[in-house]
# Entry
Amino acid sequence: MVTTEGTPNTTLNSWGIADFNLATYLADYKTKVEATLDASLVIAEPPTVYESMRYSLLAGGKRLRPILCLATCELLGGTVEMAMPTACALEMIHTMSLIHDDLPAMDNDDYRRGKLTNHKVYGDDIAILAGDGLLSYAFEFIARQTQAVAPQKVLAVIAHLGRAVGAEGLVGGQVVDLQSEGKPDVTLETLEFIHTHKTGALLEACVVCGAILAGATDTECNRLSKFAQNIGLAFQIIDDILDITATPEELGKTAGKDVAAQKATYPSLLGLDASKQRADALIAEAIAQLEPWGEQAIPLKALAHFITARKN
Ligand code: FPP
Ligand code: MG
# Structure
């Protein structure tokens, strides 16, 4: 039974799927993730870099990536506790990618999650180092904090995540994104490469790492990987749409940046309506991958719909 009081039960079955309420689910899991993130990073020497790391890590946000990891682990019969260190590590990596993305050498943004960007507060030098600190701490955190999971599975998670954030994933996508800026002839194929690497790879890792921790088979991991790749691309298409349609207050960051930076986006190549239709089709394809799990997959299905319905 889903309630709004107290800590939610730790296994998916105990949610009483018929009563599933996404808002409650998101709020409960976000609270748990926030508490673990807060406790994960205490200020030590030298304090400036820890303060800078905490400034961005605890700046709020939907915590969608950790929640995707926790939800997938539970779907496959694992527990929240087994996946929490990896879930928090995913948020650390996401946060570091945003700190670096906002730097003057990249997107040069002043606002993120409704607050000044990290380098605006701490300077470019500390912001770069805070990002580096978060990236390496994420892997340490998985290795040291994961409990009740066989070491080979933890190793598989670290390997999967390492690939997802490196040149084969986030880094590669960001490079092509930066190289494509201002070019009038960016194709849909290149744009899809950017989106699937820059955003999709980490979202895929959230889902697949949650599955690995729970002991999923290769077949299950492959299905869940396809689910995640589709929601990852849909997520970035919605991001492109919101950059045009949402206000800075709704976004918590500068709006209209893509047009100003002459970035190719789904709306610029396909138009707003066709972009929305493409995102909806991707979500439908994603949800089809969850068919074998029936109503146990309702939380993941609801999360997929939430991605297209979100306003920030
Ligand atoms: C935001 O995209 C940026 C990303 C999704 C990833 C950026 C990746 C890097 C800076 C590489 C990080 C390095 C490692 C090692 C992981 P956006 O600019 O389209 O969205 P925004 O409007 O929210 O800034
Ligand atoms: Mg940016």
User: Anything to note?
Assistant: Residues 13-309 form a domain with the Farnesyl Diphosphate Synthase fold (CATH 1.10.600.10).
